[in-house]
Design goal:
Length: about 190
């Protein structure tokens, strides 16, 4: 009996030509055969977090929470804006982490990727994202992937062309699958 692992890719960038999204598309291409990685594309539709509405957040937040719940694990690729994660991504995670005690992030395995045009590969935003996820109860994969100088690694068609980065991306997905397999055996 074979198991297919369901991963949900979330890009922290809203740009049409996002390098973070390009990295996630590459992850789809390099994911092993027993891994179904789909890209969630509705970040722009998530309204600003308002605690007054956390019990009845509206359809965009409900759909996001359902997508996260349905996935075995998440792969989040984030750019770095002013040394941190983009506001829209933080906002979505605030919604996902609420209401208190009902977070869809609790126990959810998550791999984090930092993507930047700088020499540091969004290292600071990756650290901030890891902190937010950990506080929200997610199980953050220890394996780190920083993708520096992404503008030189993604071609004009939005494809990741660097074989070293592609290999590291595949390793990250395999590590996340390994974490899922470990949890499946423990259950």
């Amino acid at each position: 009996m074979s198991t297919t692992f369901s991963l949900l890719g979330i890009s922290g960038s809203l740009r049409a030509a996002s390098f973070s999204t390009a990295v996630l598309r590459a992850a789809i291409d390099v994911a092993p055969a027993d891994t179904d990685l789909t890209l969630w594309r509705d970040l722009a539709g998530v309204p600003p977090f308002n605690e007054d509405h956390e019990d009845d957040p509206g359809p965009a937040v409900t759909a996001m929470r359902e997508s996260i719940t349905a996935a075995d694990a998440l792969v989040i690729a984030t750019p770095e804006y002013n040394t941190s994660i983009p506001g829209q991504l933080k906002n979505a995670l605030d919604w996902a982490s609420r209401p208190y005690g009902e977070s869809v992030l609790v126990g959810k395995p998550v791999a984090v990727i930092g993507v930047s045009t700088s020499d540091y590969g969004a290292d600071w935003s990756q650290q901030a994202l890891r902190k937010v996820l950990a506080v929200s109860g997610a199980e953050v994969l220890e394996t780190r992937l920083c993708v520096p100088r992404a503008d030189a690694l993604v071609d004009g068609d939005g494809r990741l062309t660097d074989t070293e980065t592609t290999g590291r991306l595949r390793d990250l997905v395999v590590d996340l699958r390994g974490l899922l397999r470990h949890e499946t055996k423990a259950a």
